[in-house]
Each structure stands twice: as C-alpha cells, then as structure tokens.
Description:
Elements: H1 2-24, H2 30-60, H3 65-69, H4 73-101, H5 104-130, H6 137-141, H7 143-174, H8 179-208, H9 214-220, H10 224-237
Amino acid sequence: VLSYLLDIFLYGILIAQIYQYYSAFPNDRIWQKCLVYTSFTLCTFQSVLYIRDIYIKLGQGFGNINVLSKLSLGMKFMPLSTGAVSGAVHIFYAYQISVVSQSKYLAGIVTALSLFQIVVSFYQSIRLIIIVSKTSVLVRKSYLVDTIWLVASATCDIVIAIILTFYLLRADARYKKTRAPLRKLTRLIIETGTASGQSYLLSSAFNVYMRLSATWGTVATATLGKIYLGTLLVILNSRVDILGGREQDQLEVHSLSAIAPTS
C-alpha cells in the first residue's frame, strides 16, 4: 500500500514537471518530445494499474485472503513499464554521450547495457504474468532475474554518470565562458544519476541479501519508472531561465547543444 501511495505522490510531481516542459520547450526536437511523452504515458498506465489494484485489494476484495495473496496486475506489468522508461532515458543519455565525447564506442556500451536491462525486465514481466499467487515456486525463484535486471540498470546509471561528468569537467576547464552552465549541468547529472542508481541498488539489495520473493522485489521497485522520468525532466527543465535570477547574468549557454531547443 505504501508503494502505491508513493507512486501516486511521485506521479503528481511528474504532472507538474511535464506541464513545465510542455510550456517552456515547444520547439524541442520531435524525437525528444516523443521520448518524454511516451515515457509519461507508460508511467500513467502503470499508475492506473496501481489504482486498480488498490480498489480490488482494499475495496472490492477487502478481507478476502485469496484476493490479497494474488499477484496484482500492476506488479506484473511493473518490470515491463519500468524497464521501458529507464531504457528510453538510458538511450537518451547515450546520445548525449555520443555528442559530448564524439565516441560511438562509449555510447554503444551504454546502449548495450540499456538494451540488456530492457530485455531482462520484459522477461521478468512475462514470468510474473504466468504466476498465479505469491506462494508460487516461480515467484520464489525469480528473485535472481530481478537482481540481474536491477544491477544491470544501476551499472548503466553509474557508467553514464562517470562518462558525462568526466567530459563535462574537461569542457569546464577548457571553456571559461560556459563554466557556470556546465557546472550546473554536471551537478544535476551527478545528483540525478546518483538518485536513480541508488534506487536500483537498494531494490537489488532486498533481493540479494534479504532473499525476498520476486513479489517483494517488485514492491521495492514500484516507483522506479517515475524516478527515472523525473530525473530526465529535471535535466531538461534546468534550461529554464528565471528572470532576475542569481545565475541569469552568468549563463550564456543553457545546456548542451544536444538537448537545447531547436526552431
């Protein structure tokens, strides 16, 4: 229940971020807007499933042990939606890396890790859809699949944060006029990458050290899709300039050319 409530809370924050992005950057690249709005649609779909689960478990089926013991539809589709959203965000950062580093090899590593975690997350959802109840043998044994998925995604986050931080710091030392925006962007990448990476590592710790069933593992990761999209929107919306703000006179470049709005 706490996972459902937290998910709804984060969804409310996402709505505010999406509105800010929609209002401030109507001229962003089409593929970039498609990525953001498609990811938001997936998060909306997942929240609708969670609300349905709450109604069935605490409303329609209140007091029914059989209803409470069944693996909910929202938890069955959670790895699929979360893996798709996090994968889309990873591939977005892979594009940023290819622009900043001019290296297809580094971008390829990130893309490969992202595609791997997407495949594993889809496979996990298929396994959970087959499962009838929490006590199923498949549930008890599927913690390994959950752990592989979570560790792969966390590894991708760490690699992205390290690569982008390295190249942005090098650019900061080279171009004095753009130090303020580059430092701001570097700070945001470190903070958002740490937040999403730690969320995945915490969830995988539940599976590895506590040996919980895959159902509890999915409860621990119930809000990861919202966290991922939220971190991406923080980066994109950081390009907004506040008139009269403290940093306005210092900022001459609002972001990397890869994420700057185009006409």
